[in-house]
Write a structure and sequence with these properties.
The protein is an alpha/beta fold. It has a single domain, classed as Flavodoxin domain (Rossmann fold, 3-Layer(aba) Sandwich). It is 37% helix and 20% strand. The strands form two sheets. A five-stranded parallel sheet has the order 2-1-3-4-5, sandwiched between helices. Strands 6-7 form a two-stranded antiparallel ribbon. Strand 4, helix 5 and strand 5 form a beta-alpha-beta unit. InterPro entries: Flavoprotein-like_sf, FMN_Rdtase-like_dom, NAD(P)H-dep_reductase.
Length: 197
Amino acid sequence: MPGERPLHVLGIAASARKNSTSGAALDVVLARAAELGCRTKAIRLAELRLPFCDGDKTAPWPEYPAVAVLRRAVSRAHAVVLATPEYHGGMSGALKNALDLLDIPHARGKVFAGVSALGGRSNSNALNQLRTSVRWLHGWMLPDQVAIPDARSAHLDGRFQDPLVTERLTQLADALTRAARALALPVAPDHPQGRRE
């Protein structure tokens, strides 16, 4: 709608592997969100130097400036896409640690979407773990989700072999954008959670 402020959609890629399936899937979701008029940003955890969470979710970690970068990016987003490989039946340790470094004020009221890439058959183990963590952070997890089986052969050069996968990722972006628009609340410009890049 004319005069609407654009939504900010953040993607967090959890895989440490270059050209990963989950990273390629995240790119599809963010590209579609951009087509829908959103401002998008991707954080790739492999490029951040984050400490292991010690249980203090508000610690400033001055020796690890990437913690502030992560927290600020989540705080400024209206919606967040979490894209993870599934390792041993769960989300990647890097993503769990990143979520553990966040606190409720960073994520409260944000809409989250989950994507997982699996080495074998499709299941929802990692996605269910994402739902639990997001709920504890007081975020809103979309009912829509995408699990991509046989990840190593699922895509080539960032393009998915099965067009249904791309279609589902596009639909996820559509649902995320609709939900974020519905839940986005105006925030005072001087509020730390309301500053926009």
